[in-house]
From TrEMBL:
Residues 10-22 have a biased composition (Basic and acidic residues). This is tRNA (guanine-N(7)-)-methyltransferase. It comes from Exophiala bonariae. Pathway: tRNA modification; N(7)-methylguanine-tRNA biosynthesis. It is an enzyme of class 2 (transferase). It is found in: Nucleus.
Length: 305
């Protein structure tokens, strides 16, 4: 007689059940008639290491260029046949232009920032990008469940998608493939929240901020766009600042400027970033410090005559 299932078997069974629910909800447009019974996925069944090696081959699927990326499966209420169009656009006979992803949370973890930003900017498409497979699957399943819970909620603007339709997540290695997803100047905000500090000197090359990566962030960020960073490691915050606007920035130094504290105090995204992510809540519970630095994308310098 077989014994009780072990932890791995329980996780596998739970995730299979969640996947079946996700497929059912997606097929029915998030409306199952079970709005009071939709249960959010449980984090304990998505066990994963704290970090993944960005230099390993993870057998990832990614587009060869941004033009080849199909966003309709991520944002069906905004893009594709099920997209909601405004009354004015429909009556005018003008074809609606599909919106593009404007906000990227790189290393989104368990998606706390995505869920908090969604109601703040409900008409802006937000994407979480995460390398860890189990964590990514948790975020995807949670978004599907939240959409089902809120599928019949009325929005403040008639004819607009219901809550949480503007967020999605995918598994990707942004240190290698960021320009494969976004074209030049597409993003208005990038979030780097509590990235792996990689304390050892030989591991610094794996940090999410470097002169090379910051140049890529500058490529996909529009002039006036922001890169938000937060960490509980002061040395890492200083590192990121040096590589955006300091002596280690290289040519990318001409493309960024640090945002003043006065502007940060008035920015609701800073408050959400420092309070709503899982890591920020953990730091608060432990009485740690949070080091915030935000950088604005400057206009491209003129070509020398």
């Amino acid at each position: 007689m077989p014994g009780p299932p072990n932890k791995r078997q329980k996780r596998d069974d739970y995730q299979k059940a969640q996947e079946n629910l996700k497929l059912k909800r997606t097929a029915q447009g998030g409306n199952q008639g079970e709005k009071g019974n939709v249960v959010l996925p449980q984090k304990k069944f998505y066990r994963q290491r704290a970090h993944a090696n960005p230099f390993s081959d993870h057998m990832l699927e990614y587009p060869r260029s941004p033009a080849e990326m199909d966003w309709s499966t991520h944002y069906p209420a905004f893009i594709g046949d099920a997209a909601v169009t405004s009354t004015e656009t429909a009556s005018s006979g003008i074809a609606a232009r599909h919106p593009e992803v404007e906000v990227a949370d790189i290393g989104c973890g368990f998606g706390g920032l995505l869920m908090a930003l969604s109601p703040l900017i409900p008409q802006t498409l937000i994407l979480g990008m995460e390398l860890r497979m189990q964590v990514t699957q948790y975020v995807i399943n949670k978004i599907v469940a939240l959409r089902s819970q809120h599928h019949d909620k009325e929005t403040s603007i008639p004819g607009t998608p219901t809550p949480y339709q503007n967020i999605s997540a995918l598994r990707s290695n942004t240190m290698k493939f960021l320009p494969n997803y976004f074209h030049k100047g597409q993003l208005s905000k990038i979030f780097l929240c509590f990235p792996d500090p990689h304390f050892k000197q030989r591991k610094h090359k794996a940090r999410i901020a470097s002169a090379q990566l910051n140049a890529e962030y500058a490529y996909v960020t529009r002039p006036g766009g922001m890169v938000y960073t937060i960490t509980d490691v002061e040395e890492l915050s200083q590192w990121m600042t040096k590589h955006f606007v300091g002596e280690e920035a290289g040519d990318a130094k001409e493309l960024w400027e640090r945002v003043s504290q006065e502007e940060l105090d008035a920015d609701p995204c800073v408050k959400i970033m420092s309070e709503e992510t899982e890591e920020s809540k953990k730091v608060t519970r432990n009485g740690g410090n949070k080091h915030i630095a935000v950088f604005r994308r400057k206009s491209n310098p003129d070509w020398p005559e």
